[in-house]
Each structure stands twice: as structure tokens, then as C-alpha cells.
Amino acid sequence: MDFLEEPIPGVGTYDDFNTIDWVREKSRDRDRHREITNKSKESTWALIHSVSDAFSGWLLMLLIGLLSGSLAGLIDISAHWMTDLKEGICTGGFWFNHEHCCWNSEHVTFEERDKCPEWNSWSQLIISTDEGAFAYIVNYFMYVLWALLFAFLAVSLVKVFAPYACGSGIPEIKTILSVFIIRGYLGKWTLVIKTITLVLAVSSGLSLGKEGPLVHVACCCGNILCHCFNKYGKNEAKRREVLSAAAAAGVSVAFGAPIGGVLFSLEEVSYYFPLKTLWRSFFAALVAAFTLRSINPFGNSRLVLFYVEFHTPWHLFELVPFILLGIFGGLWGALFIRTNIAWCRKRKTTQLGKYPVIEVLVVTAITAILAFPNEYTRMSTSELISELFNDCGLLDSSKLCDYENRFNTSKGGELPDRPAGVGVYSAMWQLALTLILKIVITIFTFGMKIPSGLFIPSMAVGAIAGRLLGVGMEQLAYYHQEWTVFNSWCSQGADCITPGLYAMVGAAACLGGVTRMTVSLVVIMFELTGGLEYIVPLMAAAMTSKWVADALGREGIYDAHIRLNGYPFLEAKEEFAHKTLAMDVMKPRRNDPLLTVLTQDSMTVEDVETIISETTYSGFPVVVSRESQRLVGFVLRRDLIISIENARKKQDGVVSTSIIYFTEHSPPLPPYTPPTLKLRNILDLSPFTVTDLTPMEIVVDIFRKLGLRQCLVTHNGRLLGIITKKDVLKHIAQMANQDPDSILFN
Where are the transmembrane segments (predicted)? Predict the structure, then answer.
């Protein structure tokens, strides 16, 4: 009796923290597709089923885009309201944030559009005045109190309900897309808690952003919706194609950049990105951006808070300061990665990691206490970036636009370069202090047990540095117009330098230095600003920052966190240049015990169960006999356990002495012997093999490009050993003089 003619629940699935067999999953999907295509010619119903199967991918993308866009809109609106709640409340309707509260007011002037009687600070509500030292102390106290409350709620919810909801999620998503299993990481509880705690974490005023976690949220949406379609829910390889598209939708709603989102998924996150996935990613990103635009979370018909438009052309000489910003971005990126990884390692290896709630509250308290006195640290980081990107116009009341001769416009209607006023000098000092605080506090914030993105803090650091340099260049051009570098292109009374453009280039440089993104980064920044003419400055800064950061350390922040956590991620960008052979890496080594194998027709159920209980291997090679060691196939441990348990329950007479056959036909049995157990259906008859003299650079390439979990080593057809993905990663680490034991999972 071959009880395996019926599919057994659980066979072909994987344990937690294990690598999937990509080749087997793709083969399964091809078989399924072939069967549906063949049946479609038999009846109308089968044809309809075939068409719906082909269409299901596009329907899934539509649902992912709609859900991601809706959640992003909800997060944006909630975070905006709760951020303003730290400073006061709208008496005309507590659900209005500061800006919306004053929109409907009849007692507001354009110059003081953020001041209206409907909006009350906490000192006005508690002691009925907004003037004096005591009112300042009350506002200060309430700001810190709200920040601590939001942070405490965020870390408590993560700790109790969904530990996987912390961090940005991008390192783990990269690992999952590289054919690894982390159960629950993209589950419904993680989605619910991450959405709630992301709002709380951003509102607490910590130096973090919501853009990275939005990628995690979108991938959770993709993973959950996959279960509505058997084609994707039951095939790990197909599901990863969906997750690549979901990551694109996440970046699309984070920055309002659909094309940038697709390129981000391709360049930074995805391991396998066929043309079909490119089209579907584009569609998912489009739907997500359209949904967010329909919700209009900021009330300005834009998808992000810091959308800007520049119209002043840049000049060739300005490439020098742009490249300087690129160098700064690269230096900041390398410094941040080293210090943040050192701090995270300290958190993992000391008592500090046991007290996540206290750590979050201490960092929040320090951030809030230092942030309140400075208006640029008190405002949300997105608002700060918006202010720094802004090009000063006639109606701007910001201190950054407090120039002398403000209303002396040039002929073209553009504001000319002008001498800086008292407000600009004051703003420069405050921004310099903000820069120092952001640089230091972000190191300790990223990696805490709350949702925390890195895009916005990195952009803020770069935008501040860029604005400082931009104002410096503007004043230099104004006071020293006779210098050769200026007089050829900058005439008296012209608008030569745009400080907001420098802020934008600085933001791109710092983000590139930390993440090592290039193409997707430039496209995201271009979509943010809508200015095609600024692509060259952005490209120059992005490439410079990448070169400088790569010279000081090869890894981006996400790859560094993957290595810190010991995930089995095989980096596709790195070349393997060592002259080792497969026999140098395979297990067993010389003088090691022999490789544990199963024979095709001579082992009993008891023998196999003993091997399973005494070893922890994920699978076993099957050979003709122990003497010949001729390879037959490979069987997974999980499939063996499930099949034997199922046979004991459903097949009469299977006992410990029953012989297991992996052959196609079992020989006739003598009378009174227990029935045999045929397990050929769970045997992989085409395991990937290499010879013992295969160079390791070829083996590494095979693992990368085929997504293998293991590879068998033979010599003249005889089985010698096995190489797993973990063995390959350990060997690469050893060759790079790193600790091979840092690879924790297979």
C-alpha cells in the first residue's frame, strides 16, 4: 500500500528559522501550472479556473496596494495629530491637529497662521496663560510627559504582543526574501501592533522615522493576503515574489515615490526579481500611491509632508559643495554604522538587553528634555526636513527666511540673494545644535525594541548640514561677488544660490551613506522634488557618499544588522575571490565521523527514528547501500517525521520493524512480516551535486543564483559529503577573517 498517493498535510513545508529549497518550490509551481493548463482544454469550468489563476496575481497586487495605502494614510494622520498633542489641544474639536484646527478659524492672520484662539497650549488649559516662566515649565513638563507615555505604550505593546514589531524590519525582510523562514515576522499580530506602535513611536519625538517600518507593514499585508490564494499561500517561492512587490508598495507610500519604490525593491531588498515581479511591483506601487493620494493625509494633495519644488537652475561650480556634502554623507554613514552596530552588540551581549522598557524610557526622556528648548528639535523630523528643503518666498515667516531687504524683489519675481538677518544667524546656531543632537541620539535610538526607521533621521542630518552649507554659500556669493568663481554666473541682485537645494542634496548624501542606495535613492529624491534638472547634483552626491562610505566599510546598515543577528544571508553583490575547493568546506571533514545517510531499501522505521532522534540535521542523503555509497536522492527531516507519524496512524500494521523503501517497487515479502512503508514520494530524486574538486567560487555562485539550501559532494558518483548554506557563509566569514560562529541559523 502506498499511502502517500494522497498528499499529507505538512509534507513539503519548513521549520522555523530554516532555509527553503527554492529549486523544489519553483518545480512544484511549474507542475501545478502545467496541470491547470492541461485541464483547461477539458471543460469550460477548468478554463475559467485557468484564467482566474492567471489573474490572481494582479488581484493580489491590487489588494496589497489598497491595504498598504490605507494603513499609511491612517498612520500619517494619527502621527500628525499625536505629535501636536504633546504641545496642546484643539478646543474646537480634539481630533484636529494644530494645522487643521487653525484652518477654520476666523481670527487668524497669514503671518501668524499657527496661532488661533481654538488651539490651546497645555499651559493655557492648566494655568490659563501662555506667558512667563511658569507657563514655559508647564509646557515643558507636559511635552516630556506625553513623550514618555507614548514611548512606554509603544515598547510595552511590542514586548507583550509582538516582539517582531520592533526595529525597521528591512534587514529581516531582506533575509526572508533570500529564502529564509521567520515564522510570525509577517503575521497579523505583527501588522496590528506595528501599525499602532509606529504611530506612538513617531509621536514620542524620538529620532526615528516611519518610512522603513512602512515597508514591513506593506510586506505583512502582502503575506496575510497571500493566504487568500492557494497559488501564493502554499508556495514559499511564489510568496516571495509577492513580498518583493509589497516592499515596493511600502516605499511608494512612505515617500510618494512609486518608481523609486520599485527600484528600491530591486536594488536593496529583493534576492530574486524576474520581469513579471517588476511589472507587478509597479502596479502595486501605483495602487498604493493612488490610495494614499485619495486619503490626502496632509491636506495639501501631496503624498509626503516635505514635498518641494525648486525652479532656480544650478551652476557647474556648485558641484564642488555638492561633492563635499557627498563626502560628509559617506563619513556620517560609516561612523553611524560602526557606532550603532557596536552599541547593538553591547545591548545583545550585556544586561542592557534584558531591560528594553527602561532603555526606551531613558532615551525618550533624554531626547525630550534636550529637544524642547530648541524649536528645530521640538518639531517632528518630517516638519524639520520640510522647513529645511523650503525655498524662501515672500510670504515665509520662518526664521530661516529672516533676511534683510526681504521685499526688494528682482525683475523676474524671484527673491535675490540677500544679507542674512538676525533670525537666520539665530537659526544657524540652533540648527548646528540640532545636528549634534540628531547625530548622537540616532545612534542609540535605532535598534531599540520599538518600530524605528532610519530614512528620516539620516535625511534630517544631511538636510541640516546641507542647509548650513547652502546659507554659507549664499552669503559668500552675496558679499564676494567679485570673486572669479562667482562673477562669471552670479550677477548683482540675482537669485544664484538655493539653500533648500543644498539641504535636499545633503539629505540624499547621508541616506546614501547609511544605506548604500544609489539609483533608487536618486529617483526617490527626484520624485519628492519633481525637478528633473537636479538629477546630476543628486547623482554626484549619492555616488560620492557611497564611494567614501565603501572605502571605510563595505556593509550598509541593513547588511550589518543581518550579520549582527546571524541570519544566513548570502550577499549577491560581493565577489568570492579565494581558491578553495568544495572538499575544503564540505562536512564531514577528514577525521570526522562518517556522513549520516539512509539506505534505499534496508532500514527499518526504528532505525530511521533513532537517526532522527540522535541528530539535528535538516535532511539526509539516501544511498543504494552503505558499502556502495551511490547516491539515490535527498529527503528532508521534517517530511520523514510527518510521513512516519501519518503512516502509524493511517496504515494498518506499520510497526518499528517495518522496512522503509525509497525504491519504486518493493520486493515480495515473506509471510507474517510487517507491511513495508514506501516513502519514494517524499524523496528528492534530483538533489544538486558537485564534485569534490569544484572551486568554491562556483559553489558560492550556485548557492546565490539557485537559492539552494544544501548541495551534495560526490567523487566518481560516490557520495562524499554535504555543503549547506550555513557552511558556505561560515567559510566566507573565515576567509574574511571574521567570526564564523556568528552565523547562527541554517
Answer: 55-75, 133-155, 161-182, 189-208, 242-266, 278-296, 316-337, 357-374, 427-447, 454-473, 501-526
